[in-house]
Structure formats: C-alpha cells, structure tokens
Amino acid sequence: MRRRDFLRNTALASSAFMIPAFLKPFEAFAASEITGYKNLVIIQLSGGNDGLNTIIPFGNDIYYQKRKTIAINQPDIIKLDDMQGLNPNLSALKEIYDQGWMSVINSVGYPNPDRSHFRSMDIWQTASDSNQFLSTGWIGRYLDSNCQNCTSPYTAIEVDDTLSYAMKGAKLKGIAVQDPNKLYQTTREPFFKDLVHEHDNTNLNEDNLGYLYKTMIETYSSADYIQQTTKTYNVGCDYPQTNLGGQLKMMSKFINSGLQTRVYYVSLSGFDTHVGQQNQQGRQLKVYGDAVAAFIKDLKQTGKLDDTLVMTFSEFGRRVEQNASNGTDHGTANNVMIFGGKLKKAGIYNNAPDLSQLDNGDLKYQIDFRDVYATLLDKWLNVNNSLILNRNFAGLDFV
Amino acid sequence: MSNARNIKHLYARAGFGIRFEDLHDHENWSVKKAVRKLFKASENQEPITVLTENLDLRHPLTDAEKTKSKDDSYKQKAELNNTWLKQLSETDAQLREKMTLFWHNHFACVCGNAYYSQQINNIERANALGNFKTLLLQVSQTPAMLLFLTNQQNQKGHPNENFARELMELFTLGRGHYTEQDVKESARAFTGWAFSTKNGEYTFNPRVHDDGVKTFMGQSANFCGEDIIDIIVAKKQTAVFICSKLYRFFVNDVPDMDHVNQMAEVFYHANYEIKPLLEYIFTTDWFYDNKNIGNIIKSPIELLAGINRQFYVSYQNPVVLMQFQRTLGQELFFPPNVAGWPGGKSWIDSSTLMYRMKIPSTILNAGVIDFTGKANPEDEAYLAFEKKQQLNVIKKVQAQPDWDKFLKEIPQDTTREQMAEFMLEPPINKTTLNEVQNAPDIKTAVIQIVSTPEYQLC
Fold first, then answer.
1. Whose CA is closest to B155, among B163, B165, B144?
2. What is the pTM of this model?
3. Domains of chain A
4. Chain B 91-120, CB below 8 Å of chain A: which residues?
5. How many domains does chain B have?
6. Less packed terminus of chain A by CB within 10 Å, N or C?
7. Tens-of-pLDDT digits for all 458 residues of chain B?
C-alpha cells in the first residue's frame, strides 16, 4: 500500500476527527493528491430559463423576427461561432469557453413536454417520462444503487437548507448543508448527543421511530465529518458577493478539503420571465456567469478542475416567440451547459436549435435529458445508467 | 390498552393532540362517545375571512400602484398563512381543521392570488366532513384550481390535458386506472370551464366548449365536465384510492389493503359521505392496534399546531412561523407540486430532523435544552453559549407560551414518567426517561420531552 493510500484509508477508517490537530495539514495534503475522485456539480436554474436569450442563435433571422423587443442586439452578443453567442451578462464565461472548459448542448428535452414548472421540474429531478410519476430522485436512486463510493449521506450534498427531490432515494438520501458549522452546532446540543450515544438498539428498528434515530445518528456523524474535514481549508479565490457565489465558494471548500462527496447540488431561481424579461434574466445570468466563472477558475488553480464536472439545467426553455409583455412564456427544449477540465468535446456540442421546425411554437427536442444523465452516470460516476434511469440510455460523448 | 391511551391516540390522529386537563376529563369516555364529541365540536364552521380584496381586480397603472399591489400581494400571503395556522392551533373544531389539512394536500394547489387560495381553502373546510363528490366539483371550479391546472387554456380545438390528467391521477382514481385516451377525451369535456377575470367567479364558456361526442371509459356521448366526474366517482376505485390516502393520513404509512377495502366499502355505500367513513375508522378495533399507535411522522404543520395548542403559544411576530414552515419543508398554501407533500419519511432529512428537534425549545424556552447528564467541557461551553444567546432568540422569535396555564393543570403528584407518557405517543426509551427523571424541574423535563425523536411521531 502506498503511503498516501494508507493515510487516506486510516483517515476514513477512524473517524477523521480523532486525528490530532498537528496531523491535519498532512492529511489535507494527502487528500488533495487523490486523483480519479470525481465530483459532479449540478446547478439548477429554477423558473424555466430562456435558453434562446442565454446562448443566442444570432445567426438565425427567425430569432430577430420572433423577438422584436427582447432580442439581444448583434454587437452586444459574445460570439461563440457563426451561429450562437453568449448573452452579454455571461461575459465572465467567455474566458472559460475559450479555455475549452465549457460545452453547450442544444435542444435538450423529452417527449410530450409538460409546461408546468412543478411537473417539469419533477420530471427533470426524478428522470421520469412525462406521464410517469416517480417518488425518488435520480441522484437518490444513484445513492440507492449501492455503488462503491456512495453509501454515506454526504456522498451527495445540496448546498441549501432543504433537500431537493432529486437527492432523495427510497433507502438513502443526500444531505442538505448550507452552513456546515451551523448544522454541526445543532448536532452538538448536549441533550441530542446523549440520545445519539445512549440510544437503545431497539430504537433502530425498521419502523418510523427507528428511521428517525438512524437519521439522527447519520446526521450527527456526517455533520461532524463535514465540519472536521472542511473547517481548516480556506478558499483562496474571490467569489462574487451573491448567494450563488457563496454557495459555490462553499462547494469549493468541500471539494478542495477532500470531502468524499460525489455529487453537489445547488439552485438559482428567478428565471420565470413572463414580463420585462431582459433586465430580470440579465441580472440572474450575471449572478450565474460570474459565480460559475469564479468557481471554475478556482478549481483550475487548486488542480481540481479535471476531477469536476458541472452541469446546468432548467426545467424547460421558453417559447420562441416573445409575448406581448416583453417576456416569454413556458416552452420546451432548452440548452444544458457543461463545464469541466477534461471535456471530450468542448464548445458547441450539437446544432443550434432549429427555429423553423417548431411544434406549436415550441422547439423540438433533439436530445433526451436522460441521455445527458446517462453520460454522467456511465462515464463520470461509473455506474450503469440503466440501474438508475430504469432503462438504458445510449448517452452522449461530451466526456 | 387502557382507555385513556385510546382517547389520547384518537385526539392525536383526529386532531392535533389532547391537553392534560382534557385527557383527565375524557379518559373514562367510551371511544364512541369521544368520536361523537369530536364531530360535535366540528359542527361549527369557521371560514377564513382575513382577506377581503381580490387583488387581480385591481388594475394598477403607475409604477407606484404596481409596487403597492405587489407589496399587498405579499402581505396577503403572509396574513392567510398566519390566520390558518392560528386556527389550526386554537380551534375547537379540530377534526374539521385536520380534514381541511388533508384536503389541502389532496387537492394540492399553488395560486399566486391569495384571495383565491383563501376561497379554495374555505371550500375544503366547508366540505371537509361533507360529501366528497360535492367537494371535488366545487374545488375543480375554483379560480385557484382552474389557474393551477391551466384549464383556462383548455379550449375546443386546443385541449389542455392538465386538469383532466390530475383529476384522475391525483384526485380520484390513481395511476393505472385510466388510459391516455381517457385523458384526451375527458379534457375535451372540460373545455369551457373557466372563471371571469372581471369578477373572479366561475363561469362556463360555451363558445370554447367542445360539445362533440367523447368516448370516455367505454361510454360515448357529448359529455360535459360534470358527466365525467359522475362517471369517475361511480367507479369504486375512486373510493379505494381516497381511502388508501386517508389510511396513510390517519392510521399507518403502510396501507393494509384489507382495512382500506373495508373503508372503501363504507365510503362507497355512503355515497361518498365523509363523516360515516371517519366514524368507521375511529371506532374500528384496528385503529387502536399497537402497531398503529405512535408511528406516524407528524407533518411540520401538525408539529407546530400541536406545540401551539399544548402550550397556548401566542406570537408577536408571526412571520417566524412561516420561517419555521419553510425550514421544515411544509409551507401552507405552497405544496411542492401537483402531487402535494409526499409525507411520511420524506418529511425527514438530516437538517430538517435537527431543526424539528430544536424548534420546540426555541418556541418554549428561548432555545435552551437544559441537560443534566455527563456534560464534558465542550457541552458546558455549548450550554453557556446557548444561555447567552437567549435574549437574541427571544427577540427574534417573540413567542409567548403560557407556562402557568400549562403547569397549573398538571397535578402535583404526576411522576416524570407519567408526564413523558402523556406527551409522547410512542413508548419512551431508557435514556430519555433517565434524563427526564434527573431534570431539575418539571419545565426542564417537558422541554426535554418535546426535543426528542419520539415527539416527532403521533
């Protein structure tokens, strides 16, 4: 056994917090050397982000015809190729794109699209068919699949106060941690500690009381593990002073301190732009672009970018034609953005959306979103996608 | 099983828990009598009337007016939320409110207009113990539901299937008991169901109604929406589906299909009258089986209403209650999606469990859970910090429990064990009992009792 493996394994076998403080920097060093430990970061844009004003098909006249007042003017667009370009509020991502760390997958959706926020978000989070109701999320089912590296709750962390549907499986679920110190503090309540340590084994039955005690004990140890593992690491890069900036900074702390977490999840809302879209979407895209650019650059500096893959999705795109209130209504297919240091196909992954062949005024999807998930599961998380998606998807070629 | 135990169980499930003095008073009642009294107390109807203006009927022109409307809309949502939670916490019509909460989740609906939310809530309350078919029809024709399930866009030639699908999948039959063709055909029957944006009243719009022949569940005619509902309700599966949800709500997370079918028989033959069904549930033997006691995870609303009721809590800053609801994952009037809150184990994830165990002491004792076990220096420091923070917690939460009133009803000779048995539905374990017995005073013991995993169950 090599020395760093030995260190890593012992750190895992004993509770990390048992290690004397003077060994900590050493341990952090060992953890940072672990290669091949891959993280998936999911960023959810809630409200239905208008993909056509995000990655703009400026080369297609129809775009300007259908969006008389809300189209982005050509000179302001940050061109990626002859056909598509970035919304100017995403200017921070240009550098990331040029480095080959970003890929845009166009026209991602699913058959018989649902235009309800709730339903469509459920479909994306549970990876169901449009007429199928699943009670577990796709990341939750990944945890349930009992793969080698996914048995602890901290295998999947949502940087938030509550846990999304996507993160809940039938047996296992991720953990929601906005502030590891705060969660840790709630578990340190002496009275709770007593209940954790002195509980009767009969309390761990399969019934609901047993479930509560099990969850309490898991939370107790996860909160401890996360707090102890991450508390000494300081993020070296600057992040924008936004909520998302803070959340991605927290993720950077988690990733760089060597947390044994495979999936991170975070959401940004405010994309339901029926009215006065340009300003509202512009603001949110800036929050998004600036925070993601800071995150990617930070990970590059710490050497973690090759082990991290970021996926951004929204529950649906919006209609091609703008509405009468300088906004857009709920639509269908949308673009998915992927970031990472080791992309097989960086840049624009597939053809720009076809604006002439519409389905009732909406884009037709070209790529099933579950093919994107399948790629992440098969090639990044190393688990057979059919175990999680309930049937086999061929997947794509971006990693 | 003692009679007092059964009475306590009945009130935990059919209401939001029983107070000490009430249990003392009712403990020799027969179950039948207690059920009768519960219904009696719920004869009273208290519609929520806090919101008097439909903001959608305002037509703001200037920016200042628009801003005002937006602020007012926000205020209305908060007022409605607070008013209902207060009613859940304080009403004597416990069973009616409990069933209103059930229908609120069954007919899960999010509406940007709080006035419409209040209206659908009052319909659910008025029919909570009435007839399911009447309730279903009335709910389906509220602006809130028409908006939520986009039936305004359901028009002849462009049917929108949203409502038709949810009607069968979530409100009546459940998945697997209808075909895609049934969805398509019945959607046509619901075309023209709309409400007027001028006065917010339901209206049938014959101009967009498709009056052609539809084939639905093997029958063909030029059905209208009411006909479709009649056909669906005539299927016994609707009774089975509603009863299995009620079973999970009142009896056990895991449906026992024999019991569910017994319930469905009663419900179906009572023409979907809700009262006889509930009387049946609350008076059967199996409702009082050990395995059906103290095993349901309280919803966050049940947890909060139970604490408020038990300790006569009043709030100077009720916004804090909305924060609690959000933190715990159940904000009234904001179900996560059309399927409602899934309930059961899904209430619990790591953070929510810790908050659930911490919130009672936050409301009742400015966040302090005193502890008499082996405290190491870290524990001591933690407790000292908590006590230092008390003033901040008080300022933020501004909750006023009436401890005097609560303690006055508890007889001097009540043992700590009896106290724990009274406050908790599941049996108490040795560790907790030990703590509670060593607590310096009864108040500390009570705080400990409500800060346990056991207190999350009813």
1. B163
2. 0.82
3. 37-179+241-389 (3.40.720.10)
4. 110
5. 1
6. N
7. 589 999 999 999 999 999 999 999 999 999 999 999 999 999 988 999 999 999 999 999 899 999 999 999 999 999 999 999 999 999 999 999 999 999 999 999 999 999 999 999 999 999 999 999 999 999 999 999 999 888 887 889 878 888 998 999 999 999 889 998 999 999 999 999 999 989 999 999 999 999 999 999 999 999 999 999 999 999 999 999 999 999 999 999 999 999 999 999 999 999 999 999 999 999 999 999 999 999 999 999 999 999 999 999 999 998 999 999 998 999 999 998 778 998 998 898 888 899 999 999 999 999 999 887 777 888 888 888 888 888 888 988 999 999 999 999 998 899 999 999 999 999 888 888 988 999 999 999 999 999 999 999 99
Q: Provide the domain limits for residue B377.
A: 300-456
Structure-token match 């290690």, residue found: A19
Helices (H), A231-337: 243-256, 277-302
Residue B429 lies in a domain: yes
In a domain, B101, yes or no: no
Q: In chain B, what residues touch A187 (CB-CB under 8 Å)?
A: 354
User: What is the ipTM for the molecules in this complex?
Assistant: 0.93
Contact B165, B174 (CB under 8 A): no
Kindly state the tokens that stand for A326.
């300088």
Q: Within the 214-273 window of chain A, which residues sit less than 8 Å (CB to CB) from chain B?
A: 215-216, 218-219, 222-223
Q: Does A129 touch chain B (CB under 8 A)?
A: no
**B162 near B174, Cβ under 8 Å?**
no
For the record, the structure tokens of B158 come out as 């462009």
Q: Does A128 touch chain B (CB under 8 A)?
A: no
Is the residue at B331 inside a domain? yes
Q: Give the residue on A whose Cα is nearest the Cα of B376.
A: A190
**Cβ contact B429–A208 (<8 Å):** no
**Is A209's CB within 8 Å of B373's CB?**
no
Q: Is residue B413 part of a domain?
A: yes
